[in-house]
Description:
Layout: H1 7-19, H2 26-35, H3 43-53, H4 55-75, E1 79-82, E2 85-88, H5 96-117, H6 134-143, E3 160-164, E4 179-183, H7 184-193, H8 198-204, E5 223-226, E6 230-234, E7 244-248, H9 260-280, E8 284-291, E9 306-312
Antiparallel strand pairs: 1-2, 3-4, 5-6, 6-7, 7-9, 8-9
Amino acid sequence: MPPTPSPTYERLRDYIDKRMRMSHVYQPLMLMELLGRRSPAPAQDVARRILGEDVTQIDYYTERVKRMVGKVLTGNGITRYERGTYDLVGGEELSDAERDQLLELCRQRLDAFREQRGEEVFAHRSRHRTPISGSIKYRVLTRAKGRCECCGAHEHQRALEVDHIVPKNQGGSDDLSNLQSLCFRCNAGKRDTDSTDFRGLQSSYGHRQDSCVFCTLEPSGRVLLENELALCIADAYPVTPGHSLVIPRRHVADGLALHQPEWNAVVELLKRRREQLSAQDATISGWNVGLNSGEAAGQTVFHAHWHLIPRRKGDCEEPRGGVRGVIGGRQDY
């Protein structure tokens, strides 16, 4: 006859089987750590258990091994790499005592390094390194459609991180226009290989031209929306009601020559203005978004700007072809 289950067993079984509401994997992993030992578990041990199940962390450090530490050790003849595995060159010659002595020497080097560097050792993985809030991170990842904005990897393929395009230590801000979604691989690659002088990039945002009508815009009722790197104004000669312009603050003639943060800022304002106009006017049923770049393309103000033109049914005899109408007789096809 099987023994009668203990009250604790019944209580835990009922909780795990029926009452445990899971928004993540944490509860069962913590319980597994506690059930697997007969002594209290320090919080760090529970964290290690969770870390062992976190595939994204494993993927991150697998890439670090392949691209960095494994590459260095193999290049120095210390390890060999074959079919996804590493081995010590000549490791079979080591006695147990020699292995123990080498392990202790590694430990001493680690302790000395930690004492010198302190908390900076793993600062690149610290969740407290940046004050980016969960809501801001959600907006950045949503804007990127859950994909890395560099390689296109989906969030289900690789862990996504919020990256400052212009680093904070080079003057970059936490504004949405300076944030992008990168997978851990691209973020690590950007950090290690990007040679752009961000100090020069940051100062370029302040470039203005005294004779430019868009550079000298004063805050007024004409400025409808703005962010750190761009602003939105009402067009002085509207094609349709609500016709608006989105203008980068930096003086640059060619709109296709913008820095990535400026692209983000311009697109953000185009979307916000479109949402604003849609909420104000239910008759709007379409949009034309256009950039004139160069005199031959009709540009007359040589400070890049995007036209956001609301369209309504019946506002012209034949709308088919849209922006193709910039060349007479070519709109219809």
